[in-house]
Structure formats: C-alpha cells, structure tokens
Design brief:
Blueprint lengths: L5 H18 L8 H12 L6 H4 L5 H6 L29 H40 L10 H14 L2 H11 L3 H4 L14 H20 L7 H5 L15 H8 L4 H10 L6 H4 L6 H25 L7 H10 L9 H18 L4 H7 L14
Membrane topology: Single-pass membrane protein
Organism: Zasmidium cellare (Wine cellar mold)
Keywords: Membrane, Mitochondrion, Mitochondrion inner membrane, Transmembrane, Transmembrane helix
C-alpha cells in the first residue's frame, strides 16, 4: 500500500477545488509560483530581439553595447549609406513605376536618418566610457573604428533636423533636389549616384589645382615650430600644431591644399574668388589633424590590409587621392605608401605636405626622418 505525501494530497485537493470553481463559472486563483514568475518577467529588462541585432542602422549601437563584436579598423555599417534597391521596370505604367522608385528612395532616406540617431546614441555611450577610462588621453584607448564613428556622427548629427524636415516635406521628390544642396545631406543618406557625382567634382577641382603648378612649401615655411610645440610622436594630431605648420604658407598654397582635400564650399568656385586665408587655415588645420589621427590609429590597428573595400575608397578620397576608375589594388597601394611615409615622419607634418603637393606617381621613395 502506497502512502500519499502531503504534496500529493495538496495537489489533488487543488485540482478538485479548481474544477468546482470552473464549473461554477469562477476563474480560479493563479498559483503562487506563477505569480512570482510573472513578476520577475515584468521587472526584468526586456531582451533585445534577435532581429534588432541584424538591422544595419543599429549596428554601431549594438557593437558599442557589446552585443556584437566591434571591428577594430572598419567602423560599423551604420556609418555608411544603406543599400539602395531600386525596382526594375515591369509591365506597369510610368506613373506606377516612378511611384515605386519614390518609395524606394523614401525607405532609403528613412533608414539613413534612423542610422544617424542610433549612431548618436552609440557615441554618447562611447564618450561616457572614454571619459571614465582615459579622459584627455582618449586617442590612446579608442580603436580606429570607434574614432571614425565619433567623427562621422559629429558630421551627420548637425544635419539631421533640417534634412529630416526636407524628407517629411518633399518625400520622393527629394532626390531631384539633393544634387543642388549636398551640404545638408548626412553621410548616411548619400545615394550611389550622388556619391559618384560628388567624387567627380572633387577630382576635377583637384586636377585644376594641380594644373596651376603651385610650388610645394619649402623647409623654411613648414619647419619653424616654436619650442615646446612638438610633444612626442605624431604631434600633427593636435589642431594647434597643424595651425602652426600652416602659418608660413602662402595664400595660393593654402588654396591648393583646400582644393586637393575638397574642403571649401563650391560657392567660391562659382564666384571665381578664393576664400579668405583665415577660413582656409581653420578648415585645413582641422582636416590635417584628423588625417594624422586616422593614420596613427590605422597603422596601429592593422593597416590597409584590414580595411574593407568601401572603407579603402573613403580613406583614399579623404586624403586627396583620386578613386574613380581605379582598381582596388591601386588604391590600397597608394594608401599603404601614404601610411608608410607618415610613419617615417612620425606625424610631424613634413610628409603629409609633400604628398598633398605631388601626385602619387611623383611621391618620393623615402622621406628622411628628423
């Protein structure tokens, strides 16, 4: 004969009690264990849905939160424009086809705008971590990909309010107007034809400047740095140091550098006047400091072989190197050569001036270390 324990008897009574309540049309009380489990689910933070981890516009936020590994060299996918998938022309009428094209551009812009916002959230988390861990010496602790995330979002977030209003007002008509106002478009919202048009204009401006035959700065122009300005290796990472290096350059040399790096507004080209020298110096000191930081981090974190194809193109055009119609192998060779000269010079500025005043095929085989 088997003796029933207290728990077995309690379960049997509970089942009888529950069946009587259900027959009477009364909802039985929930077991205590179910109530506790429900409260735990209510108060515990919701898990990130798996599909959110794969959304390209959230890739930076996911990586900075540590939910996915972060590439040390290539910035997250959300810092570049999303894929634009335009519909193919079928049997529908013209109006329906262009309606579908407009919807494709609308979806493209919407994903790009969301990417800027999610990148902004990621940069806030990243800045908090940097401030806590490194403070003023932040360049020594960030990866190259994190540095690029900070820089690109700093460029994009200021454009978000105006561009968001334009998207809301113009919708599918916006791609027709974007070529006339490229300065208001965040980097995540530049579609392929727009990027190609911008690169063509930049390379044509660069060719015109090189045809002028502006002489490169002499050693006397760029070597007079006050004592104490050079602090260790790669001093050109500081904007103040870069401004001192630019101090001895003539106006035509400053204008050539700005054309080579495609910095000043094209309005000056339309009115056929060079920008004021103070404006050129401000833009150039900021860009030269940025490039030197990026060169230092790229060299430290793996170099050109670690760069993706898209990031190789972006890195070359930022350094004033032509990219249209060139094979990836040539671009990687030019960028490798650039980094080698910067490492020889230890970021003191002499090498970068030499390369910006010469075409890649005229770069010196070696720059003497100082």
């Amino acid at each position: 004969m088997t003796t029933r324990g207290p728990s077995t008897a309690h379960a049997a009574v509970s089942r009888i009690h529950t069946s009587h309540l259900q027959n009477a049309g009364i909802r039985p009380p929930r077991p205590l264990c179910a109530v506790i489990a429900s409260s735990r689910r209510f108060y515990s933070p919701p898990a990130t849905p798996p599909e959110d981890l794969d959304r390209p516009e959230k890739s930076a936020l996911v990586a900075i939160k540590g939910l996915r590994p972060l590439d040390p060299v290539n910035p997250p996918r959300s810092t570049r424009p999303p894929d634009l998938k335009l519909p193919k022309r079928g049997d529908e009428n013209v109006a329906m086809y262009y309606f579908r094209v407009g919807r494709a551009y609308g979806g493209f812009y919407w994903v790009g705008i969301k990417a800027v916002w999610f990148n902004f959230q990621a940069t806030r988390l990243l800045k908090e971590r940097i401030q806590k861990d490194a403070g003023e010496k932040w360049l020594g602790v960030v990866k190259r990909s994190e540095f690029q995330l900070l820089e690109r979002n700093s460029h994009d977030i200021g454009k978000l309010p105006l561009f968001g209003v334009l998207v809301a007002l113009l919708g599918e008509w916006l791609p027709l107007l974007v070529p006339f106002m490229p300065g208001v478009v965040p980097g995540t919202c530049c579609f392929p034809k727009q990027l190609e048009g911008m690169r063509k204009k930049a390379e044509e401006r660069r060719r015109r400047s090189f045809r002028q035959g502006i002489s490169e700065p002499s050693k006397e122009q760029i070597s007079e740095i006050p004592e104490g300005a050079e602090t260790g290796d790669w001093p050109m990472t500081g904007k103040d140091y870069a401004a001192l290096k630019l101090k001895g350059l003539r106006d035509d040399q400053l204008f050539h550098l700005s054309c080579t790096l495609d910095l000043h507004n094209r309005m000056w080209d339309r009115i056929q006047l060079p920008p004021p020298s103070w404006l050129l110096r401000r833009g150039l000191s900021k860009r030269l400091s940025y490039l030197t930081k990026d060169d230092k981090l790229l060299s430290r974190d793996g170099g050109v072989p670690k760069l993706s194809s898209d990031e190789t193109i972006i890195a070359c055009e930022q350094r004033g190197l032509d990219v249209l119609g060139k094979r990836e192998e040539i671009l990687r060779n030019d960028l490798t050569w650039w980094l080698a000269r910067q490492n020889d010079d230890r970021g003191k500025g002499d090498a970068i001036f030499t390369m910006l005043f010469r075409r890649p095929n005229a770069w010196p085989p070696q720059i003497t270390k100082k």
